[in-house]
Q: What sequence folds into this?
């Protein structure tokens, strides 16, 4: 006889209500890794971890025991967490350079440099990813391209873009 968790995992692939039950069951683990992604907003970090959880559940092909299932999901979340941290580390050098505005040629593209400076000043109080996304948007990158560069989803980029426009 299979364990309750194994049955729930198998059924969750096809039933959204069962998936919600699983997400609430694994929410402490999801929140643990989301809390360690200090460079992202808490909501966005939790969404990234939930996506990693969904991917782990949908990629499972065996359900032998509860321990194996939990270990598989934990490893999937941990690997996604490591990938996000690596992506942040690789991009941290770009974020610390102050001369990025000149590198992208913003002074040629935009006459109103003061407005650009004001946006940069507003973004200093926000997470560093806001500034990165803002600069890449001004450089003409699409949401998908920015997501690939910063190792995040295009939905995340779109949400940050909306927050920046609200300023």
A:
């Amino acid at each position: 006889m299979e364990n309750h968790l194994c049955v729930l995992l198998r059924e969750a692939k096809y039933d959204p209500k069962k998936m919600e039950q699983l997400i609430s069951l694994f929410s402490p683990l999801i929140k643990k890794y989301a809390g360690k992604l200090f460079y992202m907003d808490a909501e966005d970090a939790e969404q990234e971890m939930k996506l990693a959880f969904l991917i782990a559940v949908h990629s499972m092909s065996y359900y032998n025991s509860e321990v194996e299932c939990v270990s598989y999901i934990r490893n999937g979340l941990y690997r996604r967490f490591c990938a996000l941290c690596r992506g942040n580390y690789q991009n941290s050098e770009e974020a610390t350079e102050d001369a990025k505005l000149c590198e992208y040629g913003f002074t040629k593209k935009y006459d109103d440099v003061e407005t650009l400076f004001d946006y940069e000043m507003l973004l200093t109080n926000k997470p560093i990813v806001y500034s990165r996304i803002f600069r890449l948007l001004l450089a003409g990158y699409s949401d998908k391209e920015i997501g690939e560069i910063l190792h995040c989803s295009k939905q995340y980029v779109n949400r940050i873009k909306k927050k920046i426009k609200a300023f």
Summary: The chain has two domains: 4-90, 97-166. The CA atoms of residues 29 and 74 lie 8 Å apart.
